[in-house]
Specification:
single chain, 105 residues, 4 helices, alpha+beta
Length: 105
């Protein structure tokens, strides 16, 4: 069931469109990962490892957003809540991730 809060959030495409100039090449699709399923060596794993060096071990996508958003002096890494999950981008390298909650089997 979709909550009113979720539907009020922008979509991932809307978030990404804020940062893409019309003359830019279309961005590649963001990597989708879960907190437990970030592939070794992937950007998702690097984000989680970085947060770990700061003593943060997020258990939910909401915690990923909160911890990245709260980083003072962080200019390169940003997180945005969106309908699909939590979008994370690294400005200097231009990649985007989408952290989603794990689905119950």
């Amino acid at each position: 069931m979709e909550t009113p809060m979720t539907s009020a959030l922008p979509t991932l495409a809307e978030v990404r469109a804020r940062f893409i100039a019309p003359e830019d090449d279309p961005p590649s699709a963001p990597v989708v990962c879960t907190l437990a399923g970030a592939a070794p060596g992937s950007e998702g794993e690097r984000v989680l490892r970085y947060l770990g060096t700061l003593g943060v071990r997020p258990k939910t996508t909401s915690e990923v957003f909160q911890h990245i958003h709260a980083l003072e002096d962080e200019e390169d890494l940003a997180a945005f809540e969106c309908q699909e999950g939590v979008a994370v981008t690294q400005a200097s390298e231009g990649w985007w991730l989408l952290f989603v909650e794990e689905r119950e089997q």
